[in-house]
Write a structure and sequence with these properties.
Length: about 725
């Protein structure tokens, strides 16, 4: 009778939506995916694929929380405002007025909404606001219980906490079946159910009935499980999880993990055993899917229910040396997805075009005829579902990984040394773009390699096309397309992304052509001096008293880059003056000269104004590479390839440094000078002096640099010296 009643109240014009959401599931754990081992069998999910459309790959998020945040808001991670980690991990919070979840809008438009299972997006689960019915394992709300993925969970039943026994995958399925059967919902309304399994997340634990069922099966080792990875980003050396045993087989490496890492799989576990364990854990999910579909069939709701099976993201099974998620490779983050709805979707089709989480949210809104009152990032993918094998689809897919940061908190992009950059899985922030068969990856680390893969010919992402010169046009097209998508999705970080290796190489090549040499290596033609400078073995050196060496061939441009090499003898002191008003790049033997005691007067300092971040000098007698970059109010000093000063004198936080130079007699806003090399009475050598004028299009590397700390004793001595300078200046003024 109950089944008959439910059948009569189905709404053909507005389907029910059953969104089944696994956790950390690699697409290779589903037998309907051809990449899976032939000894894996997921018959119920396979049946779903035969009756609907299977997507080869989807990109929803790099890890659990941003994937869920994206599915709740319809926005990519960089656009989810106010979401943040706060308190004991995984505690998190958000402002529900600014960070609104679309199920509330579905409620307002006649849907009954429910969420069952894992929650990982704020202590506030939205019960009564977003969900009419909720049975939730609230990990952020119960951090002490957050590792209990499979048993002894604290579960909140519509606001009331209970500790629950039993295997979580089975529990969630049971509760979902109750809901489908009509419990806890209005039978007169179409419904949306988000069923969030915790499997196969670590500690990956199969149900007792499945444990050992796949023992003895061997899995093919990924081609690059042990590395090396020469054309991939450098961080892979830190994420390598597998070692080769004496028997030539792969075993899990022992690694230090953060306390918030709940994946407690045993170090030393064999690769075969791990793959078996993962797939045994997935078996209960497959059984659950079968039970859910059978319940829909028995209650007469199957034909009017849009069923979506997917996972928050993937989880690598050894590919590229990984045993985790997060990284931008398909094995680590690409989700499987199957969509079934016979009324509108063809059966038994495979779609090679990937989609994003906001795209799926937009699909839900489109089929339910609900308009969300805020901007989402998804596109209408109904034409793609109507013709999954279409060759005309041209919408690229973007995904960003910004660690534990969301929305406006994703700017500025952290330095590589900042914990926020790699706090999740030791993987730096990145942007990923799929355009047709190509995948483009841009890691947000200055000078890091970009990646391009042809996923049709190279599905395992072994050959990075971006490093091959013949693919320059392809690389630039994909880079530009990624920037366009970042702008479309309101990514504020788009204008502060660090330069890539290819961009730096191209800029260096262009700048090399623009540089003007100021010293020919043989004569001092074009330089003014009093006979106290000479050329010896291709270098300029001081040979007696007489004052500075001044370049007369040109004035230093307002915005410029100067490169030069220098070396000193023991205790030597000199300097490069490049603007009027005491603009001096200090040249010094830090170890022997008294000025080396104070960072503000040490080598590469902006003398008596700004100290370098650290001492990057080479030993006395060796050549150092100096570089000065000035544009507008920004002054940068580089030493031996490292930026040691990045100083915007218009920034109020640097007012102390501006005042220091002003008291010495310098004015930072003055322009127009001739380059000069200081004669301080000590042996010094210069060579390879080149300069170029910067154009409006030249962008500076504005990676923050922290000036070195100066001890109280040095500061006191510095003040005494400065007081003497000021006193002498005042005495001279009175005398005149």
């Amino acid at each position: 009778m109950a089944a008959l009643l439910i059948s009569r109240t189905c709404h053909a014009e507005r389907p029910n939506i059953l969104f089944i959401y696994a956790d950390d599931q690699n697409y290779k754990t589903l037998s309907c995916y051809p990449e899976s081992p032939d000894w894996i069998n997921t018959p119920n999910i396979d049946a779903l694929a035969r009756e609907g459309v299977r997507f080869e790959r989807c990109y929803f998020g790099a890890w659990c929380m941003p994937s869920r945040a994206s599915f709740l808001t319809g926005r990519l991670q960089h656009g989810v405002q106010t979401m943040r980690m706060e308190g004991t991990y995984p505690a998190s919070t958000y402002d529900p007025q600014q960070c609104r979840f679309w199920p509330a809008t579905f409620r307002e438009n006649g849907y009954h909404t429910a969420q069952i299972g894992k929650w990982h997006t704020g202590v506030d689960t939205g019960n009564g606001r977003d969900w009419d019915h909720q049975i939730v394992w609230n990990r952020p709300g119960h951090p002490d219980n957050a590792g209990n993925y499979f048993a002894n969970q604290i579960v909140t039943f519509n606001g009331v906490d209970r500790e629950v026994d039993g295997y979580s995958t089975d529990n969630y399925t049971d509760w979902a079946i109750d809901y489908i059967n009509g419990e806890h919902r209005d039978a007169d309304k179409p419904w949306y159910l988000w069923l969030c399994y915790g499997a196969v997340h670590g500690p990956t634990t199969p149900a007792e009935r499945h444990e050992g069922k796949l023992a003895g099966h061997e899995a093919e080792l990924p081609a690059d499980i042990f590395g090396p990875w020469p054309d991939k980003p450098q961080y892979l050396s830190n994420t390598s999880a597998w070692v080769k045993g004496d028997d030539g087989k792969a075993y899990r490496r022992k690694k230090q993990v953060r306390s918030s890492n709940f994946n407690t799989n045993t170090a030393g576990q064999s690769y075969d055993d791990w793959v078996q364990q993962t797939n045994e854990c997935a078996m209960a999910i497959d059984e659950g899917v079968g039970r859910l579909i059978e319940t829909l069939r028995k209650t007469g709701q199957l034909e009017n229910t849009l069923v979506v099976y997917t996972a928050d993201q993937g989880f690598a099974l050894g590919e590229h040396g990984f045993n985790q998620k997060i990284a931008a490779y398909d094995a680590t983050i690409a989700s499987p997805m199957i969509i079934r709805h016979p009324q509108t979707i063809p059966q038994g089709k495979v779609c090679r075009h990937p989609v994003s989480a906001p795209d799926v949210v937009q699909l839900f809104c489109d089929v339910a005829d609900v308009t969300v009152p805020w901007k989402m990032h998804g596109r209408d993918i109904r034409p793609l579902l109507k013709d999954p094998e279409s060759q005309d689809w041209s919408m690229p897919v973007l995904m960003t990984h910004t660690g534990r940061k969301y929305g406006d908190d994703t700017v500025p992009i952290p330095n590589p040394s900042d914990e926020a950059m790699t706090i999740v899985g030791d993987v730096p922030w990145y942007a990923l773009l799929r355009d047709g068969k190509y995948k483009y990856i841009r890691t947000f680390v200055e000078g890091e390699v970009e990646e391009v893969y042809d996923l049709h010919s190279d599905p395992e992402e072994l050959v990075n096309l971006a490093v091959k010169p013949e693919n320059k046009a392809l690389l630039e097209r994909l880079r530009a397309l990624a920037i366009k998508e970042l702008r479309r999705t309101d990514a504020k970080l788009v204008d502060s992304m660090p330069h890539t290796a290819a961009m730096l190489a191209q800029a260096k090549s262009a700048s090399d052509e623009a540089f003007v040499s100021l010293f020919d290596g043989t004569t001092l033609d074009g330089w003014r001096h009093s006979g106290n400078w000479s050329v010896v073995d291709g270098s300029i050196t001081r040979s007696g008293k007489g004052g500075s060496l001044v370049c007369e061939t040109m004035m230093v441009p307002d915005d410029f880059e100067l490169r030069f090499q220098w070396k000193v003898a023991e205790g030597s002191n000199s300097g490069v003056y490049y603007r009027p008003g005491q603009y001096e790049y200090q040249i010094l033997d830090n170890s022997q000269h008294a000025d080396g005691k104070n960072p503000r007067t040490s080598a590469a300092s902006l003398y008596f104004c700004m100290q370098p971040s650290h001492d990057a000098t080479r030993p006395v007698g060796q050549w150092n590479e100096g570089r000065i970059v000035c544009k507008g109010t920004v002054v940068q000093h580089w030493l031996n390839g490292e930026k040691v000063i990045d100083f915007d004198y218009a920034d109020p936080k640097y007012q102390f440094h501006v005042d220091m130079l002003r008291q010495r007699g310098g004015e930072l806003d003055r322009r127009g000078a001739k380059l000069s090399l200081q004669d301080h009475g000590d042996p010094v050598w210069y060579r390879d002096i080149q300069i170029r004028e910067l154009s409006e299009s030249d962008k500076l590397d504005r990676t923050p640099v922290q000036p070195a700390t100066i001890s109280p004793e040095i500061l006191a001595a510095e003040k005494k010296k400065l007081d003497g300078i000021v006193a002498r200046r005042q005495a001279a003024k009175q005398k005149n």
